[in-house]
Structures are given as structure tokens and as C-alpha cells.
Amino acid sequence: MKISFLYKFFLVIGIVVLLPFVYLNISKMVSDDTILTVQEGSLSSNNFLAVPKGTIEIYDEKIAKIDNLDDLKSFVDDEIQKNNFEGIDIPIYIDDIVRRKYFHQTAYISADTNWILKGADYFFPEFFFLSAMDPKDLIKKNHGSCSQQSIIFQEFIKDYKFEYASIGFGISIPDQMDFSHFVSAVKIGGDWFYFDSNLEPV
Known about the structure:
The protein has 7 helices and 7 strands. It is of the alpha+beta class. The chain has one domain: C8orf32 fold. A hairpin with a 7-residue loop joins strand 5 and strand 6.
């Protein structure tokens, strides 16, 4: 009797938890509102955003539209081989490509089919549960924050056997919001060099 009750109890709980996932998946399949056609293909509107007016970044839409990791890696490697880049010229070139692919804006993954993740992000937005962190997700975007652009930079750097590191820091500014930032360092020979794909030199 007790086992029968527990079985029914957990069955009901399972159905209650499962129903929102089923609903969200069906509603996502039915709706085509999240697709935006962009010249050579269809890119999710969540992935390919309009460039903010007045931006001074060196964003290049042709580079931004390469939304497959292997394709962009192949493009980068071809250019490195063609130009005989070596040593520090390689990370400098990769840094330039990342600058051209992204403008600064945090990129998010879709949580349309995951109500638990949606709820966690709603109640605890300071933890950025929906921030894209996987290179395979980030490559589909044309925008990214400092940490997200660093992830892509490092994804390319590691293919060339360089030693690299992540650097995160925060600066307290009186009467202003604290400034937090994330960058990369690459070791060339015996020296470390600082790379910041996110902030354009001025």
C-alpha cells in the first residue's frame, strides 16, 4: 500500500515537472517569430543583433556572419598561412578577427524550453545564468561581453600551441559604478603579452 502511494505520488510530481517542458518545446516549434533572415541565410534574432548607432568599434559584418566555429577557424588559418604569420603576429591577427566579429554587448543563450533556468535567471539575475559561455554558442553571435570575446580568442589561440591565461580584475571608482573586466594574456617566447579583444584602442 505504501509503495503504491509513493509510486502515484512521484508519478504525479514527474508529470507536473514535465508538462512545462513539453509546453515550452511545442510552443517553440510552432512559433517562427525568433527567426530573422539575413542575406545569405537565417540567423536567430537572438544571435544577430543590430549594431548600436554611433558605435566606434571595428565591427565587420562579413566576419560576423561566419557562424560556424570550424569555418571561422579555417578562414583564420588560411590567412595566417597565406601571410606567413608567426610568433606574436598570430595572436595579433586573431585578436583583430575577434574585434571584427563582435561588438560589445552581453550574449545570451535561449531558455525558451527550460523553465527552471528561466526562473533561476529571473530571481537571481546577478548570476547571469543565461550568459553564453560555450564557443559553439558564442560563434553564432555577432556580439559579446569582454569575457565572451576572450573565450573565443582563447579558443583560437590554443590551436597554435601558445600558452595563455585569463585575467579578471575590478577597479573601484569613487562616486561611480565599479569597473570589472576580463582579458587574456599570451606567452610569446619568454614574455607575456596582454590582449583585450573587447576594448578598442583609442
